[in-house]
Amino acid sequence: MRWRSAAAVWVFGATLLAQAPIVRKPPTKIMEPDEESQPVPQDNVPTIHVQTRLVNVAVNVVDEHGAPVGGLGREDFEILEDGKPQKIAYFEKESSTPLSIVLAIDASESVLRDERLEKNAAKKFVDATLREQDELDLMDFSDSVREIVPFTNQKKQIEGGLNDLMRGSETALYDAVYLASDKLATTRNDAGRRRVMVLITDGEDTKRKTRYGEALEQAQRAGAMIYSIIIVPVWADAGRNTGGEHALIQMSTDTGGKYYYVEDRKDLEPAFAHVSDDLRTQYVLGYYAPQGVRDTAFRRIAVRMKDTALQGKYGLRHRSGYFADTR
């Protein structure tokens, strides 16, 4: 299958890309205001170079009924890395921070049954979610993974791409997660930006190229929140892959996203609306990663309410951590 966009055709070799090494560019030096006018350090004056990394953590807070809790401030939260408290350097409530979204649609025959309903639901999601500061990349996946529309905030272009879904017989689900994460990793890493992956699938990976662990790690390295809209097959279907569903649920949980079951195709639109609402009611907390040896370790993040009386009252959802050697 081929990638088709307005200007060119792009073939996504999922297996090759999934195995390819990840090349990361060194961070671009940002010129501070009036830096050029500052005096040049003398030879006998030591120059200290400090590398810092702002770690963004999107947090959803809900009450005992599952309703979003608004009106909280920086002083209401505390954040820990590997059990050690960190100073909150950035805070945004009920988030208006920019979004980079990959919408990846399972185009296998087991999922893409009522194209009109599915396309219309996706179009309404794009229309409701995408703002001027946001961007969205559209992919489909079946026998291979295709990028239909690269990152843009032009809704008409995305809607046109949704009319170009191509059916296939297999489901390269983990290839799609890996490659969507790759795309998200190339987006800007400015303060507060949230990287989001929305998957529409039945959860069954039949391609068996990229493994589950590889796909999850790539998503965590990109700092992507995975929202899974799981299309439930006929309940009597002996081929239902509950293992695949559980894998999607775990991916969503580990990355701070969420999952939704859809039994009737008419429920796709409400599921998309839930994703949009979830993104609109997030808090974004940022802290500077502790200085130390730059290694490849996975550093665990915990966010909790500072008031111990609220810790049992409110539920918090966020990503479980990040890899120290990624940005």
Describe this structure in words.
This protein is α/β, with parallel strands linked by helices. The protein has 2 domains: 54-94 and 283-323; 96-280, 3-Layer(aba) Sandwich (Rossmann fold). Helices cover 25% and strands 27% of the residues. It has 8 helices and 16 strands. It has helices at residues 14-19, 115-129, 155-162, 173-185, 212-222, 242-254, 268-280, 308-311, and strands at residues 3-4, 9-10, 54-62, 77-81, 84-86, 90-92, 99-106, 135-141, 145-152, 194-201, 224-231, 258-262, 283-288, 298-305, 315-317, 321-323. The strands form 4 sheets. A 6-stranded mixed sheet has the order 9-8-7-10-11-12, with helices on both faces. The longest helix is centred in the middle third of the chain and has 15 residues, at 115-129. It is globular and about 50 Å long. It starts with a strand and ends with a strand. Mean pLDDT is 83; it is low at 1-40.
